[in-house]
Amino acid sequence: MLEQTGFVDVEIGPEWDTFGGAEGEANARTFDVRGYAFVARLPG
């Protein structure tokens, strides 16, 4: 999706537990919610 909007050199980081220890952690586990860091740049 990032490439389709003009970004290049897209990199996706490792999976991250964004809800670990949070109040909504149980809901996140139910829906298998995970976070990923993205790095990309616009040419020019």
Task: Summarize the helices and strands and which ones pair or pack.
Layout: E1 8-16, H1 25-30, E2 35-41
Antiparallel strand pairs: 1-2
Please describe the structure with a list of short key phrases separated by commas or semicolons.
44 residues, mainly beta, 14% helix, 36% strand, Methyltransferase family protein
Description:
By secondary structure, this protein is mainly beta. 0% of the residues are buried. It is elongated. The longest helix is centred in the middle third of the chain and has 6 residues, at 25-30. The chain has one helix spanning 25-30; strands at residues 8-16, 35-41.
Q: List segments where confidence is low: pLDDT < 50 over at least 5 consecutive residues.
A: none
Give the overall form. Answer: elongated
Q: Tell how many strands the DSSP assignment holds.
A: 2
Q: Assign the structural class, choosing from mainly alpha, mainly beta, alpha/beta, alpha+beta, or little secondary structure.
A: mainly beta
Mean pLDDT rating: 91
Number of helices: 1
User: Can you write the helix and strand succession as a string?
Assistant: EHE
Return Rg in Å. Answer: 14 Å
Amount of beta strand: 35-45%
**Sheet with most strands:** 2 strands, antiparallel
Strands of the biggest beta sheet: in what spatial order? 1-2
Q: How widely separated are the two ends?
A: 19 Å
Portion in helices:
10-25%
Number of domains: 1
